[in-house]
């Protein structure tokens, strides 16, 4: 089986899941899968994908895995007690042929608390099933050469001594085996420049730091769970602060775009949160705006961390590190460019929440192509509420 441990997922799934347990245990949600890469035919492998998902749903946390999670400072004992009984419910996931040629449709529907862990391993399954059938003899030496060349850009440059990069590529990895090799190689080659990995199983295996805080789905769900739509972003940040009391303090900034984020991220949040994460739009513009915003709120940006994680490459990360050196703390999360760069086109696949408690939810972001919502009327209303310009015709 591709997934052999429920820890083989990103840390922010557990940090969000703990919030769900303590604050929204009755929430009902729906996720939908989407492949953004054109002309990809996954239908020949649909039974293989179903079999892998069936295996995923048989997994339970082991005592050793629970002990590891419990050793993380922000994980609470009652959450560990819940995970001891947890399994992914197979009745909540449906895999079928999609409407367009070659498409498959994956839908997850059920209690948020019991379905939140589906996304990352299901995407990893789709990737690995596709590539092990279409790239039966991958050029691993090419992948190793590419990886070494990327790392050498910073390891061999004395000016990059403060550079920190994390691996964020679980959902779009070529394979689990290649993912393991990437993390092991980065740890042995980069030393303290390697900040850690978002993958909890690999962090445990290689004794590196597991990294992550919140994802888009958390702020999306709060559109349905908060007191009113306009206050949903503030509500989400306040509930997060209530749960973690200052820990896990990196706020995601692009669910409604930067303008809306900065309107809500007032002096209180500027001082409370350790920093913010960029995941769409121009990273240089975003970084400059964040620094200006901190200063306007009487906060020294040099005490705050800006995390860049949008389709990053090493050359782009180096540019960003040089631009913001000495002006703020910077950190980088690189995903697909690390775990699926062997000389072929990686899949651009996502699985996003589209409903919570029967109500549509949406992610807008600073990149129109990343917008995901299956209800155009709700999306138009959300854009109006958050004072966003209407989408261009045809999007």
UniProtKB/TrEMBL annotation:
Recorded metabolic or biological pathway in which this protein acts: Cofactor biosynthesis; NAD(+) biosynthesis; nicotinate D-ribonucleotide from nicotinate: step 1/1
Q: Which GO terms describe its biological process?
A: NAD+ biosynthetic process via the salvage pathway
Taking every annotated instance into account, which residue ranges of this chain make up the domain Nicotinate/nicotinamide phosphoribosyltransferase? 163-389
UniProt entry keywords in alphabetical sequence: Glycosyltransferase, Ligase, Phosphoprotein, Pyridine nucleotide biosynthesis, Transferase
Q: Which positions does the record annotate as the modified residue Phosphohistidine? A: 216
Enzyme Commission designation: 6.3.4.21
Reactions mediated catalytically: 5-phospho-alpha-D-ribose 1-diphosphate + nicotinate + ATP + H2O = nicotinate beta-D-ribonucleotide + ADP + phosphate + diphosphate
The enzyme's main class, written as a single word, is: ligase
Residue ranges of every copy of the Nicotinate phosphoribosyltransferase N-terminal domain listed in the record: 7-127
Superkingdom field: Bacteria
Modifications after synthesis and translation: Transiently phosphorylated on a His residue during the reaction cycle. Phosphorylation strongly increases the affinity for substrates and increases the rate of nicotinate D-ribonucleotide production. Dephosphorylation regenerates the low-affinity form of the enzyme, leading to product release.
The record's Gene Ontology cellular component field reads:
cytosol
Record GO terms (molecular function): glycosyltransferase activity; nicotinate phosphoribosyltransferase activity
Task: State whether keyword Signal applies.
Answer: no
What Pfam families does the database record attribute to this sequence?
NAPRTase, NAPRTase_N
User: What function does the entry list?
Assistant: Catalyzes the synthesis of beta-nicotinate D-ribonucleotide from nicotinate and 5-phospho-D-ribose 1-phosphate at the expense of ATP.
> What family is reported?
Belongs to the NAPRTase family.
Q: Tell me the protein's name.
A: Nicotinate phosphoribosyltransferase
Q: Give the gene that encodes this protein.
A: pncB
